[in-house]
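new request in #modeling-help
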Amino acid sequence: MSAPDSTRLMHLRVWRGSTRVEGFYQTYEVPFEEGMSVLDALRWIRARRDSSLAIRYSCINANACRTCMALVDGVVEYTCTARLNESCTTVEPLPTRPVIRDLVTDTAPADEKQR
Amino acid sequence: MTHLSTDVLVVGAGGAGMYAAIAAAREGSSVLLLDKNLIGRGGATIMAQMTVAAAIGHEEPDDWVLHLEDTLEAGRGICNEPLSAMVCQRGPERILEMDRWGTRWAREDGHIKQVGAPGHRRKRCCYVDFLSTGPAVAGTLRRQVSGMAHVRRLSNIAVIEICVAAGHVRGAVALDLSTGSLLTIAARTVILAAGGLTKIFRRNSASANMGGEAYWLALEAGAELVDMEFVQFFPIAHLAPRLVGMDPIMWDPFRYKLGGKLLNGNFQEFIHRYGGQDEGRYTAARDLASYAILKEVEAGRGSPHGGVYLDFRHVPDDSLREAFGPVIDRLLKNGIDLTRVPIEVAPTAHYHMGGIAVNDRMETRVAGLFAAGEAVGGANGANRLSGNAITEALVFGERAGFFAAKAAMDTDVDWSPAYVQRARAEFSELRQHKEKGLGPAALQNSIQDLMWENAGPFRSGKNLERALPALHGFHDQLQDLAIAHGDIFNLDLQDWYELKAMLRSSEAVVMGALNRAESRGAHQRLDFPQTIAEFERNQLLSLEDGTMTSRWTSVVRSGMPST
């Protein structure tokens, strides 16, 4: 996922937790590639650093499935189109939806769930 | 453990799965529709940025038989002709039904607008608008299926095993990602509509859930796969600069409309040196273009990121804007100004022609197990025409739903907890894995590298033979992989099963490619560059006592599909 010559590192500060009150922020160091999306960084973290991070996405890059929404530096964004900023990017779950875990919120229609 | 019961279980809720659910419910069946992601959002349909081919004859006189001839020609002699005929004959009614359901096909003078595409001799490709066709098709079906009382939809459910007893499907076991527990489902019939396998390659245009799950589930249930060696590689997928918010295969319409020069790393045209004609419009065939690009890279004449340049600098700004206005803006947002810099492109895995072997009722050799969509093999033979993928999703979905519902009427529910013993034991073991170390997501990346390097666009016996033991080595690591603790939305659990699917699918591609000692369509062997008449046959793969086994069979020639 990262270019072979990438040596620049940047930081991603990610909200973790299963309930709003017990959440905390975990900061990851991620190799930075020009133009990299927030989702690229989250997927890199899952594959290389911490697979326990819960995220939701499907189409990865096309911005077609529209399932990867989160709060990026305080703004609701698709993580697949939001770019990393060069200092530190903060990613949090959508504020208006119940948290399932970490960045995954309950976005499925009510009748698509078991309970 | 939660247990559900249904007449028809549909695995995968892309275009094919949603249509199958609608069709089965129309026949009076109760339907359970499952997806690993959210219903109607995962899979390939929603990503389709191009067109949908069907001989509705709105743009100019057309006939489904002509569409069939074009499809068979592209398939280089090995299409399952009744399946191809089914797609071409029934495509028009599906497109028109979608129109009534509110898919806003682009119109001109009151009729549905249809455009041409390579390999289609008539203008028969419908679209919504550039970048919106897939989302519009998926949205229409999502609305339609939501309105059907007999279809129950469940999101974030990954099926991990199809239960079979006494030669008949009995149901399935699934992982409920939101709780991290298993779910069992008794079903009279099951439809596999979980898409293709392009995720097994490092360079791919796949979504997260295209790791070959349908093929793995089918094989393990006892079904056969056909022509698994045929992976469609798209020659000029976007490589660099990093482009977000667009499908990497987006450059095709640009090259048709405007022409783009393909240049190697030294900014020289090169296609003509491989027997192709470029003429500033880049009209070379897909396989030749892929070959030429990879050969330039191999010779050290690639672009900085390992592809070649696609150059539009000779096209005036107003022509670019006139053809692709909104897209030009989106490109500029990505820092890409086509009038000033060439972009880098390279071949990428895009679609799978091979797949689950079915008869003309979409049923596998396992009674009660059906397939639909890209998961099905055979309709496109050795190469798929642009525009045929969504058509086959809709047509196969409808047919599979119809026949699975009919079969369900003649089948009793038979369920026993014994059917899930193996899966439960395996899951308990999985939960005992260590927490730290190499995990399934990381190993998936290793498979992607291995498959790209050894079973990608250009293959040789030597490389394929190297890949098989490497895959078996990965398989041996399955029990030692680290799995994060925790139940709720623990993606490691899902990744682990997906990894199993990727390994089985990869093995099928490699074995198929090794046995087919010729080059035909999308399957190119450097050590056997010719197409050989005796290979105008289909290769069937199955698991016999856990070992993948191959046999050859004659191509199913014309004959009308069942009604």
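bot summary: The longest strand of chain A covers residues 9-16.
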